[in-house]
Amino acid sequence: MEDKREKGRAFTNGLLVFTIIIYLFLLLQIIVFKTLASPLDLFTGNHPFMRSVNLIPFKGMWDDELTAASNRTSLFGNVILFVPLGLLLETFAPQGKRGAARSLAIIAAASLLFEGIQYTFAIGVTDINDLILNTLGGLAGILIYRILLRAADRNKARTVIAVAGGLVGVAMVLLYVMLLLANA
Predict the structure, then answer these.
(1) Domain regions of the chain by residue span
(2) SS3 at position 52
(3) What's the rounded Cα separation, in Å, for the pair 23 and 114?
(4) Do 99 and 47 form a contact (C-beta atoms < 8 A)?
(5) Which residues pair with 50 in a beta bridge?
(6) Residue 78, SS3?
(7) 63, 168, 179, 182 - which has most CB atoms within 10 Å?
(8) H or E segment and range at residue 93
(9) Which SS3 state, helix, strand or coil, does residue 124 take?
(10) At 35, phi and psi to the nearest 5?
(11) CA–CA dist 21, 33 (Å, integer)
(12) Rounded to a whole number, what is the largest CA-CA distance in the chain?
């Protein structure tokens, strides 16, 4: 019986590691490499120079020059992009309020790191609004995890997150490969 539980834990952990790898790859693709033909262009400077900074919260969060659909995509995209990070961090965090606070701090730091990379390499807009929205997305992930814990014990919650993450990860890999093949 114990051997079966160990195999189950190992499978869950393997799925979580797979999910984390795919998630980090997608984050890098979406945030850092979105305007680059090749990741090496980040270091060669062979990319469009795009550097601007917004340090005023909520300024320009809704851009009147864009369509409502573009604004919603930007707002919700920044939130949704970091929901998995909140879920995954909570899966590994110690239980209790300190764990959630630590996870939220890591989420904010990760968002700040990505904003700093965009500024440093001039590959995007460094925006406090992105930091706010990304952190809200991570908070939503933390809250979703806490709701899962009310419905199931910690091991079942981890399994649900691992299986869902694994399925989404496989779907994302397949979509990415199809995009590569379509653009080849």
Answers:
(1) 2-182
(2) strand
(3) 14
(4) no
(5) 123
(6) helix
(7) 168
(8) none
(9) strand
(10) -105, 5
(11) 16
(12) 62
